[in-house]
Design a protein that fits this description.
The structure is a single chain. It is built from two helices and no strands. By secondary structure, the protein is mostly helical. The chain has a domain of 39 residues. The protein is flat, with a radius of gyration of 17 Å. 3% of the residues are buried.
Length: 63
Amino acid sequence: MPGADFSRENVRMLADLVGIPIDDADVPEVANRFACLMQELDRLRDLDLEGIEPVAIFPDTGE
């Protein structure tokens, strides 16, 4: 999400959309943590994954 806006208003809107209650006092911290998380996830775009086959995280249990 390059250039994404993690403003107080946008964090509040996202929390309301997914039904997560967040106290007004916690919104700035949530916005900061979310921005840091997205920055780390953006680093995955730089990985060369050519030729890497996907693997099952949860093996089929046969049920």
